[in-house]
Write a structure and sequence with these properties.
Length: 576
């Protein structure tokens, strides 16, 4: 029941309590939305008391605070703070943010189809989506946005400009952009259309018989995209599969179930949920005939693989249907649902925890028992339990999905990180694309020694420099000894150490040439072949991809990993 009340709110609610009925009430007070799930039992008085205090406090604050207040902003702040005390996934969605939320679940929105990034003082096009309005209008990566529909966007944030680019389907938008290398500004007229971001941005063959699918999200129809990719790869001769879930934040639970269903028999349980409200206790089983229940699968995960990604990886691990490779996953075992509120707003609320076939919940953070600083603590070891897969292999709850084969991610050196984060690689790729009309196909392109040398000259021309970790640590030490008045006694030693560890840019450009070149190639290829090209060329130098290929080509090792608990995995992999 939805009830709208004015000053007689408390009297009306007390009458409802007198009837002792369980109701769900959304109370609106002069455009102020107060949401609550009210079960009128023994805590009726506490509930009414708290609501009355909030109402009277808000009334007094609005009347007597020294400065003018914004009631909507105050209520939004209080709602956000209240929900934040629960968990990060229970959030209030105002009407103004509904389109963004819809995009997260459907992968669709009305816009121009372009990624944005901050570059110096400006917002620039990072990558236009192939085939969408920004691409059709001739926008390119590196284009600087100056105004939209005649209004300057100088000083606007990425989110601000993103909102300006969204709008009704078929509506027009005019942009003035500055293209590096050209003296005059360009006017571009774009017609907004429905933008559908693919869940599977790329799939292809890695080796003669090894197929690859990159799954980036779990929005609507993700399982159809995976199914189509799998079918096409099998037609091309794929006899094994790498499913890449790295950096996949998750999405719709139903899509995760349907993707698992592609590889396991109808009737197999994939996940079940348990919540406080019994209606959220559900068992999700495979409902359709699978595509292939035998094809060997290696699933790549990392610390940013979350939620639906963990359902797919975890359930296939629990039923010994796939080998998981990479790093421990994020550990989000919570399920959310939308609840409609008044005035076209929504509540996304955590309603349950999910449990994969072995019975484990992979939730890593305990939001119900906060640390002294208010942060959520990890599930303590004493509360972590052992479970068994179908073949009696040991798995554990309370900390994400632990891969069967753990491989550390490759970390960028400080110089490479600075080149990427400070947009030197991005800007050089823009300059490169201006000078080269075309390049070899994405999978074949390689930066030549001369082109790499040109890049180092570009860096020197633009006075690139950076601070190594060692230099940064020495600066902190020098600050500390100066503060504590020890500098005079250790100055000679610090100066000598400073000379020894001072980096040489020329040497560093050669020492870290390979990893710098890899990022350069990816950025350059994206200018010609967009996101698909970027992913394709990145696979050439991905050591984890090579590990997957090696595993899938070694049928004995693959089978040994899945067959049961008597195998010493560390020794087995070492011997291989």
């Amino acid at each position: 029941m939805q009830v709208t009340v004015g000053n007689a709110m408390m009297t009306f609610i007390k009458r409802l309590i007198g009837k002792r009925r369980n109701l769900v009430i959304i109370i609106s007070i002069s455009s102020i939305s107060l949401l609550g799930l009210f079960s009128f039992v023994d805590n009726d008085f506490k509930l009414l008391k708290s609501l009355d205090i909030y109402y009277t406090l808000f009334r007094e604050l609005n009347m007597y605070y020294v400065d003018q207040t914004d009631p909507e902003k105050l209520v939004k702040t209080s709602i956000d703070a209240m929900l934040e005390s629960l968990d990060p996934y229970t959030v209030f969605i105002p009407e103004s943010e509904l389109e963004d939320y819809k995009f997260l679940t459907t992968g669709q929105y009305g816009g121009v189809g372009a990624l944005l990034k901050k570059n110096g003082n400006y917002i620039v096009i990072s990558e236009p989506y192939e085939g969408y309005p920004a691409h059709k209008a001739g926008l390119k990566a590196g284009d600087i946005i100056h105004d939209i529909n005649g209004k300057s966007v100088l000083g606007k944030s990425i989110s601000d400009i993103g909102e300006l680019l969204k709008g009704d389907l078929n509506s027009k938008i005019e942009m003035t952009i500055e293209r590096p290398g050209r003296s005059n500004f360009l006017k571009k007229v774009l017609v907004r259309q429905k933008i559908s971001v693919n869940n599977v941005p790329y799939f292809g063959m890695l080796a003669k018989k090894v197929g690859y699918i990159k799954l980036s999200n779990f929005t609507e129809d993700a399982h159809i995209e995976v199914k189509n990719a799998l079918t096409e790869l099998k037609n091309e001769g794929a006899q094994s599969l790498v499913l890449d879930l790295r950096n996949n934040p998750g999405g719709l639970l139903g899509e995760a179930v349907d993707i698992v269903n592609l590889f396991v028999e109808k009737g197999q349980e994939v996940v079940h949920t348990k919540g406080k409200v019994k209606q959220w206790d559900n068992v999700y089983k495979c409902k359709n005939q699978p595509i292939d229940t035998k094809i060997p699968i290696a699933i790549l995960v990392n610390k940013n693989s979350a939620s639906a990604s963990e359902i797919v990886a975890g359930s296939l691990q629990d039923i010994d249907r796939a080998v998981i490779i990479g790093q421990r996953t994020y550990g989000k075992g919570l399920v959310q649902a939308d609840r409609p509120l008044s005035y076209n707003t929504k509540l996304k609320v955590t309603i349950a925890k999910y449990y994969i076939p072995s019975g484990r919940c992979i939730q890593a953070l305990d939001y119900s028992h906060r640390e002294s600083d208010g942060s959520a603590g990890h599930i303590p070891d004493s509360l972590i339990h052992e479970f068994k897969t179908k073949n009696k292999r040991k798995v554990y709850d309370g900390g994400g999905i632990l891969p069967d084969i753990i491989l550390k991610p490759e970390a960028l050196n400080r110089i490479t990180y600075n080149l990427y984060a400070r947009n030197y690689i991005f800007n050089y790729a823009t300059e490169f694309a201006q000078k080269h009309d075309s390049i070899l196909p994405a999978g074949s392109f390689k930066l030549s020694p001369t082109q790499y040398e040109n890049f180092t000259k570009y860096l020197n021309k633009n006075n690139f420099d950076y601070v190594t970790e060692s230099e940064e640590a020495l600066l902190k030490l020098k600050y500390s000894v100066t503060k504590e008045k020890y500098l005079d006694s250790v100055k000679l030693e610090i100066d000598a150490l400073s000379l020894k560890i001072k980096h040489n840019k020329t040497d560093d450009f050669q020492t870290y040439k390979n990893e710098i070149t890899e990022l350069l190639q990816e950025e350059i290829v994206s200018r010609y072949y967009f996101q698909k090209g970027r992913i394709q060329i990145s696979l050439n130098n991905d050591l984890l991809i090579q590990k997957c290929i090696d595993l899938l080509n070694d049928k004995t090792l693959y089978s040994d990993i899945l067959r049961g608990p008597s195998i010493d995995m560390a020794l087995l992999i070492k011997n291989k």
